[in-house]
Amino acid sequence: MERICSQLDQLMSHDLVGGVVETIGTTIAVGGFPAPVGSVVEIQRQSGKPLAGEVVGFRGELTLVFPLEQLSGVRQGSSVRLIRTMRSIPVGDSLLGRIVDAHGNCIDGFPHPALTMRSPMDQDPPIATSRPRIHETFSTGVRAIDGMLTCGDGQRIGIFAGSGVGKSVTLGMMAKYASSEVNVIALIGERGREVNDFIERDLGPEGMARSVVIVATSDQPAIMRVQAAMAATSIAEYFRESGRRVLFMMDSVTRFAMAQREIGLAAGEPPTTKGYTPSVFAMLPKLVERTGRSAQGSITAFYTVLVEGDDTNEPVSDAVRGLLDGHVILSRAIAAKGHYPAIDILASISRLMNDLVSEETRRAAQTIRELMSTYRENEDLINIGAYRQGTNPQIDLAIRMRSEIDTFLRQAMEEKSSVAAAQQQLLQLAAKCGARPIPNAAALAKAKRQTQQAGA
Ligand SMILES: Nc1ncnc2c1ncn2[C@@H]1O[C@H](COP(=O)(O)OP(=O)(O)O)[C@@H](O)[C@H]1O
Ligand SMILES: [Mg+2]
Fold first, then answer.
1. Where in the numbering of this chain does the AAA+ ATPase domain appear (predicted)?
2. Closest residue to atom 9 of ligand 1, CA basis
């Protein structure tokens, strides 16, 4: 089938040639060129090599092409040739350990591997009814997630965080310690320096060995950033369909959405929610639905979402949250205390956890959550010394267990963990807090009033 498609492509591409009519902002309008959306085209220039572009839409009789490089050298009447109607990228096992761009070209300075297979960039997600249920745990290697927010093999989770609170480090730890056979990591819209830092510091040779990294930096055209996200998903699909357990990470889906907004606006879409165009909200589900489990293998996926300030109700956050089976919130306040990974357990959730773990583990996690919540509610009182020990057994216990819970949740970058180890430690920890009955909310509120009065 793939061969037939590419032959068809070749037949069509030999024939279809159009001419540049005008430029509209950063897009090029081409006349006499009925190529379908998504087609790859080449625009001849006055001098130098032809400019690559992609068909993004139409206006009247004109076909709109978004260039992959600077426009310079393009003039009115420049000829535009169709190269391929279907975008695909070369794939194969020899991509492991390599860094590639949105088109699958290796950009790590080593020779390009010989790859004979191609995988389509746009692909429909597996049919809902053919998707096996998620019933096995996925070991991320991050203890706080494995213990308190256990994830399933094929689950999709969002990591919501501002900049500098530990996204890259956390993703790097997963790449090194997770139970995946293959990691596919998409770095979308980061600065070049951040990319190098991630590859050298966070991923290291250990993580890199079983990873493919797909990069489109912030200085590349919007279309390359969108395509890198699709290419990465496509590479992950190739590994999944060859039967592997894949860990997929995209940092960040927000930058992907911003790039798509830029293309949408250039193609004349109206800005709707906070300047985002409708195509952004049409593309997000198409993108994230492609990961997950299929009959052959699984793609467990983590998508990072940038949250600026405390604005977690930003439209991309909202859309992504609704599409995924859980979210991990990284908190600046927690990071500021030097507590890493800075996961706000109480604000995070894995929607599949209860289906995946034993009743005992579920209860243990619940016990720890309740103690953390009790501590947080009374933190101000405790900190100013207004809480009198002995007033409330639950608060006493929360204070007593606090440092052990913190030790359990903290993890240095170079410290390995697994879901089995995390669950075992969680059970031990809960056993230390366990036997005591948990007072009801009314009793807690009363204790709080009493301590407040005592403090006043
Ligand atoms: N698990 C950790 N242990 C110790 N320090 C950490 C950990 N995670 C993050 N950090 C600290 O936070 C800084 C920023 O983390 P980084 O992952 O680069 O943030 P982001 O990708 O969200 O911008 C790191 O340079 C490091 O000092
Ligand atoms: Mg980062």
1. 153-335
2. 166
pLDDT per position as a tens digit, 355-371 = 999 999 999 999 999 99
Q: What is the CATH number of the domain that holds 16?
A: 2.40.10.170
Per the domain annotation, does 316 fall within a domain? yes
pTM of the predicted protein model: 0.85
Answer whether 169 contacts ligand 1 (Cβ < 6 A).
yes
Closest residue by Cα to residue 182 from 75, 101, 291, 281: 291
Q: Is 341 in the pocket of ligand 1 (CB under 6 A)?
A: yes
Range of the domain at 367: 361-434
* Same domain, residue pair 30 and 163: no
pLDDT in tens, 231-278: 999 999 999 999 999 999 999 999 999 999 998 888 888 888 788 999
For residue 337 and ligand 1, the question of a CB distance below 6 A is answered with no
Cα(367) to ligand 2 centroid in Å equals 33
> Which of 210, 6, 273, 238 is CA-nearest to residue 115?
238
How many angstroms is it from 291 CA to the middle of ligand 2? 22
Domain assignment present for residue 454? The answer is: no
Q: What percent of the chain has pLDDT over 90?
A: 62
Vertex 26 angle, CA 20 and 30, to 5°: 20
User: Crossing angle of helices 222-241/278-288, nearest 10°?
Assistant: 20
